[in-house]
Design a protein that fits this description.
By secondary structure, the protein is mostly beta strands. It has a single domain, classed as Porin. Helix content is 15%, strand content 51%. It has 7 helices and 19 strands. It has a 14-stranded antiparallel barrel with strand order 1-2-3-5-6-9-10-13-14-15-16-17-18-19. Strand 2 and strand 3 form a beta hairpin. The protein is globular, with a radius of gyration of 24 Å.
């Protein structure tokens, strides 16, 4: 029971601290979610800081823009569909249904983990003026990997799926969560290339500098918890490393981008996000929680110890230092393009590859495509598709444009094949004239 309690606490921590986020920044508008992330070449104004700062220097960049507020949320798992979860919520689960769920999680592999990830983002404010942009945003994210034995124990109790009782091992189950808040500043500079300019090709390069606070990092490991059936006994061994302060570290990073516009109908861009980056954690702000327990029919013993960093042995301190040293953001290579097919319809595509870093909660690589139809200027309709070449996602959304004030909405299903998830976002922004 103690192990179940501590696992539940960590699950709540992951869910509570949990968008499309580059570890430190939240995507600033709901539009990008509606296009399933195919936004490198579409982003303009304050949005360009996140997607491609070079877009601030393109000829069609607005003279100014203001992002008032935005929020996004994402939740995904590798095994169960959204329909399964929603249909079974609040319902009694019979053994056949439990077996079906367990089979979907294991997918023919007895040791397969149930993996879940989530993140939320809040774009507090953003603005652009001429070729400059700046703003503040916060993100939180988490990953949870649960041993399939733990799922079987939760569904069937210690009797197991076949009802005869079995030994369960929770070894390898772990959870991780983190949160960042920071500011960003971007600048772009147009470039003229003789000869190409004659053919209507305009170029721009740009950069975004991000700096802020790493609020928290938490990680729980199961170190070999075992429940035996004969004799019935539980042997718990787990540990958690958590930060104790709201500013456990600092971060900075630099994004570099380039863009080309051709005859105002075609834009392509390339970005290396976090081209230079560093997360500096203060190990003195972390503590180690150790939990051991043994229980059988005759007795129960437990030991729950919390140790500050200064109280740890040299080996335990090295363990935390090693964990913090590996807790870094990933570089992202982004390639994208958008083409104006007709005055009312545009199509876009993006390819994103994550490189290094373990603070990530999304696919390692993503290809996405999106389209926008404007039957009337004040009601743009959007759709998007994305894949990591093993899973498929689809999204959609719309905008309501009251003159310069834009309210955008997006929602979608993420990772439909081999698992499922949901993503949703809303944002409010102001643009000059009738807006971008």
């Amino acid at each position: 029971m103690r192990q179940l309690t501590i696992t539940a606490i960590l699950a709540a921590l992951v869910a509570g601290s949990l968008s499309e986020a580059s570890a430190q920044m939240a995507a600033p508008s709901a539009r990008s979610f509606a296009f399933a992330g195919s936004y490198v070449a579409r982003a303009r104004g304050y949005e360009a800081s996140f997607w491609n700062p070079a877009n601030l220097g393109l000829p069609d960049a607005p003279s100014w823009s203001l992002g008032l507020a935005g929020a996004s949320a994402y939740l995904n798992n590798n095994s169960l569909s959204y329909g399964q979860i929603s249909d079974l919520y609040g319902e009694f689960l019979d053994d056949a249904t439990k077996s079906e769920l367990l089979a979907d999680i294991r997918a023919g592999e007895p040791d397969r983990m149930l993996e879940a990830s989530a993140d939320v983002g809040a774009h507090i404010i953003g603005a652009s003026i001429w070729r400059f942009a700046f703003g503040v945003s916060s993100v939180g994210a988490g990953n949870l990997n649960v041993n399939s034995d733990a799922v079987e124990l939760l569904l069937f109790g210690n009797a197991g799926e076949d009802g005869s009782g079995k030994d369960f091992s929770l070894d390898g189950s772990e959870a991780q969560a983190w949160a960042f808040t920071g500011g960003f500043a971007s600048y772009a500079h147009p470039i003229t290339i003789p000869g190409l300019d004659y053919f209507g090709m305009k170029f721009s390069v740009g950069a975004t500098l991000k700096y802020g606070v790493a609020h928290t990092l938490a990680r729980l490991f199961d170190r070999g918890t075992i429940m035996t059936a004969n004799p019935l006994a539980v042997d718990v061994e787990a540990e958690a490393i958590t930060s104790v302060d709201a500013s456990a570290g600092q971060f900075w990073s630099l994004d570099l981008g380039a863009a080309m516009e051709y005859d105002r109908d075609l834009v392509v861009g390339v970005v290396l996000s976090n081209a230079l980056a560093n997360v500096s954690w203060n190990e003195e702000e972390f503590e180690l929680h150790l939990l051991t327990a043994q229980a059988d029919f005759d007795s129960t013993t437990s030991n729950d110890t919390t140790l500050a960093f200064s109280e740890l042995t040299a080996e335990q301190q090295d363990q935390i230092i090693e964990l913090l040293g590996a807790a870094d953001v990933a570089k992202e290579l982004r390639l994208g393009g958008v083409y104006r097919v007709t005055p009312m319809f545009t199509a876009s595509f993006d390819y994103v590859e994550l490189m290094g870093g373990n603070l990530r909660s999304r696919w390692d690589r993503t290809f996405s495509a999106g389209g926008e139809l404007r039957p009337v200027s004040f009601l743009p309709l959007r759709i998007g598709l994305a894949t990591d070449f093993g899973h498929l996602s689809y999204t959609g959304g719309f905008g309501i444009y009251a003159g310069p004030v834009h309210t955008d909405f997006a929602i979608g299903r993420w990772g439909v094949a081999g698992g499922d998830g949901i993503v949703g976002a809303i944002s409010v922004s102001i643009w000059p004239g009738n807006g971008y």
